[in-house]
Each structure stands twice: as C-alpha cells, then as structure tokens.
Amino acid sequence: MNFTAKELRALALPLLACLLLLGAGAALIAWTRQEQRAAGSELAAAREQRAQARERLMRIAEEEKEVKEKLEVYLRLRALGILGDEQRLEWADAMTRIRTQRELPDLRYRVERQRLISSVASKPANVDFFASTMKVELALLHEGDLLNFLADLRESGNAYYSIKHCSIARTGLAPAVAGLAPRLRADCEIDLITIIDRAAKT
Amino acid sequence: MKHLIYFTTGDHSVYSWSGGRLELQARFPGDDSGVTGFREYLAGRRGALFYALADLAGEDFHEEQIPYLRGGDREQVVQRRLAQRYRDTRLAAALTLGTVSGERRNERLLLTSFTNTQQLAPWLDALTEAGAKLAGVYSVPLLAPSLAARLGVKGGRAFLVSANRAGLRQCFVEEGRLRFARLERTVDMVPDAFAAFVRTETGRLAQYLATLRVLPREGPPVQAIVIAPPGQRAAFERALVSDARLSFVTLDAAEAARKVGVKSAPANTGAEQLYLHLTVKSPPREQFARREDRRSYYLWQLQRGLVAAGALGFAACALYAGANWLDVSGMHGETRQLRAQTEVTTQEYQRITSAFPVTQTTTDNLRATVIEFGNIARRTASPRGALLYVSRVLNDFPQIELDALQWRLERADERAAAKPPAGAAPAVAAGEVAQVLELSGRVGAMRRSDYRAITAEVQRFASALRADPAYRVVRTQLPFDVTSEGTLSGDIGTAAETGEAPRFTIVLARNVQ
Description:
The complex is a heterodimer of chains A (202) and B (513).
Chain A: H1 5-58, H2 60-79, H3 88-102, E1 106-111, E2 115-120, E3 127-140, H4 143-156, E4 160-170, H5 175-178, E5 184-197
Antiparallel strand pairs in A: 1-3, 2-3, 3-5, 4-5
Chain B: E1 2-7, E2 11-18, E3 21-29, H1 32-43, E4 49-54, E5 59-67, H2 71-85, E6 92-101, E7 105-114, H3 121-129, E8 133-139, H4 140-150, E9 157-163, E10 168-174, E11 177-184, H5 191-211, E12 222-228, H6 233-239, E13 246-252, H7 253-260, H8 272-281, H9 295-353, H10 363-378, H11 384-394, E14 400-411, H12 412-417, E15 433-443, H13 451-465, E16 472-477, E17 503-511
C-alpha cells in the first residue's frame, strides 16, 4: 500500500505519539534501573554498617579492657604536656634550667617551625601529630654531660623528644692546657613531638 | 460510536451502534433523492466509521475450484476468476469452502456478488466523498455462519430462516460455511399464513439445493433454524412440523437477540438487528468492498495501530519498570530495616560504653592517639645504650682513642637516598629503623710503621664490638687499606716518625624495636 503525502501527514502524529510513548517507556525503565543501582549500593552499605556495628558490639568486652589500658597512656600524655598545643616558653625554660643545673659551659639551640608529620582519620575528628625540630649545640666536659642533658630534656616533658642525630667530637684542647675547659662538643637534632586531638574536651 | 447502513431493495436505513445498542438514525429511499439525503446526512459526520450491510435479492453464488495457492498468486487467480464471472467486480467476494484432494490439490471457492452493483455504488461514493471511513461492505448471507453458530448450530448442514425488513431471508450453511442464500419478498400476512409461507419456502429451497446436488437426496433431516417474529413463535411451531427432510427449530426473535448479544434495538426492527449487530461485533474476513473504497479505514486502522503499539510498548515498559520499582522498594525497605537494626546496635553499644571509664575524648580518638603515638615511639631511640656499650668495650682497648662519635637514626628509605660506600653492608634492612653509630679514632702507643700491629688492634676492636649480637659492624675502615681494590702506600727509611697516628672508622648498627 503506497501512501499519498496527505496520508503520510495523517500518519505523522500517531507515529510521533508512538515514538513518544516508547521513549517514555524506555526512560521509565532507565530511571528505575538507575534507582535500582542506587538502592543496591545503599543496601550494601547498610549491610556493611550493620555488620560493623554488630562486630563492634561483640568486641565490647575487649574494647573496655583496651580503653582502660589506652586511657592510662592517654592521660599520661596529657599530664606530660605531649597532648595539646606546643609550649615553646616551657621548652625555653627547661633548656635554661638544665644548663644551670648541669653547669654546662655552653648550650645553644634553635627550634624550627612546627610541621605536621601524621594525621590519623578518626571519629568524630582527626588526631594530628606535629613535630618541631630542635638543633642543639653543647659544649661538654665529658660524654656523660650529653647523656644527662638528653635525660633531663626527656624528663622536662611538654613534648615527646625523638632524637634524630647526635655527634660528639673533641674540641682539640689538651687536658693540661684546658683545665675545666670543655673537651668535647656535641651537636644534636631532636624532634619535639606534640599531639592535637581534635575531639578532646578542653 | 459506529454507524451501519442497511441496504434493502425498498429503502436504506442508517443505524448507530454502541455497546450492543442499535438506534435508527435515518432512513432514505433507494432512489436518487435518497442519495442526496444521505449526502446531507453525512455532511456533519466527516471521519465517521461506517459498516454497510446489504440485504438484497439478486445476490449470486457460484462455486469454483482454483489451484491451491497462497499469497499474491492466490489473490491474482481469485481476482481473475471474479472478473471472468462478474462484469462489475467493484462489489465481489470469494469465500473459501476448503480444499479438495484429487490428482492435485484444489481450493473450493464460493464466488459471490450482486447482480446490480449500481444500486449500491452511489451510496459508497457518497461515503468516500464525505470522508467517512468504510470498514467494509457485507451482505446478510456472509454473516449467516456467524449467526448460526451463536444460535447453536455446531456443524453439519443447516438452514437459517429469518424475517428481515427486506423479506424472508434463507441461508444454507454447511460445516460453518455459507453455501447458498436467497431472499423472498413478503407481504403483510397473519402469523399462521406467514408460518405456512416459511414452511413452503424452506421446503422449496431444500428441493432446489437437492436438484443442484448441494444437498444429498437421501440422508438425515437437515436442521432448519427459524427466527420467528415477536409474538409469533407459537404459530410458527404449529406450522413448522419436522419431517424426514427438515428438522425445524423455532426461536423467538427476543431469544435470538439475547443469544447474539443485542442489548436494545428500535421497535419494529426485524431479524436484521441480529445481522447488524454481528456486522459490527464480529465481521467476517471476507466482504465485498475493494481496497480503494476502504483506504481511509486502513489509514485509520494504521493510525490506531501505531498509537496502540506505542501504548502497548509503554505498558510493557511500565510493567517492567514496575517490577524494577518493586525491587527498589523492597531494597529500600530492607535498607531501612538494616539501618534501624544498626541504630539499635549502636545505641546498645553507646549504652554499654557510657559505663566505661570517663575519657576526655571519644573511644575512637583515644585509640587513634595511643596507637599512632606508640608507632612513633617505637621508631625512636636514645643514643645512651649505644654509647654505654662502646664505652664498656673501650675499657679493654686502652690503645684506642676515639676522636669523634656520630649517632643517628636511619630508616631504610633514607638509606636508599644515601647509598653506602662500596664494600659496606647496608645498615638498615628494608622497612626497618636502625640506630647507626659511627666511631672515628686512632691507635695510640704504637709505632706508626708497625702497620701489622695497628691493623690487628683495630680488627680486634671491631670483633669486640660484635660481642653483643644485637650490634653489627656495618663497615670498618682500617688505617691501612689492605684490600686489593685500595691503594697501599708507605714511607720506609725515614729516621723519625712524623704526623698523626693512622685513623680508622667503624660503623655499628642496631635495629630499633
């Protein structure tokens, strides 16, 4: 059956309606498929969350023990001033105090700017670990002065002292000539580590 | 709403049909004035759907056989046979009567047309000109098999006799197919006389068909279904007595209308209401109109077909989407349930953890802080242990004088950046942290030229440093390079020894943790 132009025009609207209906149907399917995928992802996530919540509940006895143990360390860190903002004035005081107490002939130090060394993602906020590198130059009467200095520094608190490098060298002065003059010289590089817990109550 | 035009010899009636209800719209005389009136009637009905039903005398039936063919070949042969049989084939049809098997397989055809097609042509032309859609032109005999089936004829041979507006219509049906029909004019008669007339005419038709050998002379009586006009069934049953040739079954017009499905029809309408209803409700495939006369109907069907296909496609998509949505809905429900369970579990967890020791942070942060601090602390060390260890070893080597000590923490990645000198073992294994102690010194109280003694002393010192297995000597640089790769030099014969004592270097390492 051959169609005339008039007949073809008469068929145009029904054909358009047919195509529109089929297009609408296809769009409907595409939309529901998309919804299906999204719902599938949500369901998988919900399953995972429930599994995690249940597992956490099952491990609660272990967790209580763990919390008690870790709380001791946490409180100790807070008491030592490692947990919290940097206390640079306290550090300066400590250096002065150690020099005086240990009668060190010469003590020079320089603390660099703070830098982030680690950030642990946690809930509800991250825990950030910072370090400020301190470079120390010491004049020593004997090797024990360095060890005493490092021990005193550690005891002074207000940071965790991570020693990166220390070198000891003779000054070159003969003992007879020098008397009580320093015979050794030490250079150290120490990271002063502090922790900021963003979720901690102040 | 659909329209029907019912052609009789005297006049032509237009009915509307909707949901099994027939209504008389107009009636026109069969002459030119009728055609004019019909044109005026159609003026306001452009695009209306019409079915034409002819109930005319002079309808020819002729049986022929053609070779068994299909498709276009069959159509060509049929058209040729119709052209051979009828002068005007505008209104002609070929009804199949099945096949016969002989030497070759043939198809039996019943060719049918009207002896005077010109009485219908102006009316069909008027429909075309008015833009009406012609579904088809049917005759009452074409609908007889359908009516017979609805009135209970299951097969075999049967006469179907009805009193129509056009006259007494008699159709002979064999195995559900039309074989012959005739229309006998009637005049107003009393019921008894009309019943006797029906009896006589049915007998005559049977006799005629027997003469033509369409009906066998011997055999069981042939069923004759007679539709009596309203209120005349009793008179018909009295007159229509069955005999050896005919077995009469009389039906009241109202009962027949109920069986066919007619819900209502105008008063004083004869049995043609049954045929009119069947024309719309179940039109036979074969009809008289040419393809050209039905073109607007085909176009309309195609339009409806396109929309219906679209609607059907949409419905199928909607059904599939609905199934998807049910799935989505189920998943949402399950997700909600899981979240509620998670919430309950979390609340239970929080209830229990609220009894834990009071902390100044959350449990997660407490854990994160202590674990990460532990990791950092494990990677640090103090030089104290290493220095004390060297000091203890030195007690046994009074000749060794240290000039410099260098202690450092070294990681494998840092070490990779600064490669060890050739011949030196790596101080740190991959992924480990080690404290490295580099000792530089001299061997005193020995003659500088006594290089064997000096070398032996340094090697003894290095061996002593290995006493603790935790420490390992990574590199030893002797005062004299005695390796084949190095350069050996000396100053033999000089009277006095000058310069400093030869220096050595030993690098010790110990893993942290």
